UniProtKB/TrEMBL annotation:
Source organism, top-level taxon: Bacteria
GO molecular function: hydrolase activity
Record-given protein name: Isochorismatase hydrolase
Record key words, sorted: Hydrolase
Hydrolase found in the keyword field: yes
Domain Isochorismatase-like: 9-154
Pfam families (UniProt xref): Isochorismatase (PF00857)
Keyword Hydrolase tagged: yes
Record InterPro entries: Isochorismatase-like_dom (IPR000868), Isochorismatase-like_sf (IPR036380), Isochorismatase_domain (IPR050993)
């Protein structure tokens, strides 16, 4: 598989919501890494799509990652791909860099749906979470078995940069350190 190219990437942040994050194992770490990816994506012109599962019950996206008002993709299906308009709204030329919660429910089902639709999905293992660590581990194993690429925050950021000569290298390195 090729490197993760920022010109062909879309950062998909799944259900990082205010009432869910307090119960996620290492929620602070998941949130920090998702924030790093979002900040790098903004600086490198990588589009970001945020989903919200049952926002009435789980609340909106956490303030640190809140999308522009009215731009979060609402869903009730655990898989975003089962929500009308989701797949059709994804640019066909983009690979999906996936973060979010819960790894074994909405992330897993969305990623399996993306793979079934023939899309490339790169799941950022240190930016996905579940309430239980064993659920997260099982989800990562299952996604990989079905063809998802399991990557880390730093792998994505450094592949998006491509070189230490990138004009935004020093600025983006402040996100990693």
């Amino acid at each position: 598989m090729p490197l993760i190219d920022p010109a062909r990437s879309l950062l998909l942040i799944i259900d990082v919501q205010v009432r869910l994050m307090p119960v996620i194992a290492d929620g602070a770490g998941i949130l920090a890494n998702t924030g790093r990816l979002a900040a790098a994506a903004h600086r490198l012109d990588v589009p970001i799509l945020v989903t919200e599962q049952n926002a009435g019950g789980l609340g909106p996206t956490v303030p640190e990652l809140a999308p522009e008002p009215g731009t979060a993709f609402p869903k009730m299906s655990f898989s975003a791909t089962r929500t009308p308009g989701f797949l059709e709204g994804l640019p066909a030329d983009r690979d999906l860099v996936v973060t979010g919660c819960e790894a074994h429910i909405c992330v897993l089902q969305t990623v399996l749906g993306l793979l079934e639709a023939g899309r490339r999905a790169c799941v950022v293992c240190d930016a996905v979470g579940s309430r239980r660590t064993e659920s997260r581990a099982a989800a990562l194993t299952r996604m990989a078995a079905h063809g998802a690429e399991i990557v880390t925050t730093e792998m994505v950021v450094f592949e998006w940069l491509g070189t230490a000569r990138h004009p935004r290298f020093r600025e983006i390195m402040t996100l990693i350190k």
